[in-house]
Amino acid sequence: MIEQIYNYFTVEILYYWINLGVLPFWLILIFFPYSNICKYFVTSIFPIIILSGAYIFVIYKSYLNSYNFDGNFNLYFGIENVSELFTNETFLIMFWIHFISINLFTGSWIVKDSQKFMINKVLLIIPLVITYLIGPLGLLIYWLIRIFHAKSLNLYE
User: Fold this and answer.
1) Helices vs. strands in the chain: H and E counts, helices first
2) How many CB atoms are located within 10 Å of the residue 124 CB?
3) Which residue ranges make up each domain of the chain?
4) What pLDDT is recorded for position 31?
5) What is the CB neighbour count within 10 angstroms for residue 45?
C-alpha cells in the first residue's frame, strides 16, 4: 500500500495537490481573517508542518533518484545557473513549495499584524490577494496601509 502511495505522488501530482491544498488557507485568510478557524488553523504552525512534510517527501524522493543536491549551490554563481536549475523538475517543485510556504507565512503575518492595529478586514483583501500572487509586493502594500492606519512609521517592528 505504501508503494502505491509513493508511486502516485509524482512531481506533477504533488504540484497539483500543493496548489489546491493552500487555497483553503488563503480563502480563510482573505474572507475570515479574524475568525477562530483562522487563528488556530491558518496562522498557526499547521500549514507550515504540512508544506514541510511535502518538502521532506520531495527531498527523500530526490535522494532515492540520486539527485545532485550540490548542484543547487550553483544558483549563486550567475543567472545562467539559475535558469539551468529550473529545467530540473525536482528543483522546480522544491522551489515552488518554498515559494508557496513563504507567501502563506507572509499572509499569516499580515493578518496577525493587522489584528494588533485593528485594521479593517476589507483593507486586507488587496494586500492578501497580491501576497498570494506576488509575495513582496503584497507585503509592501500592507505596510503602506499600516502606515496610514496606524499614523506612524516604524521600520523595525
Assistant:
1) 8, 0
2) 23
3) 2-149
4) 93
5) 9
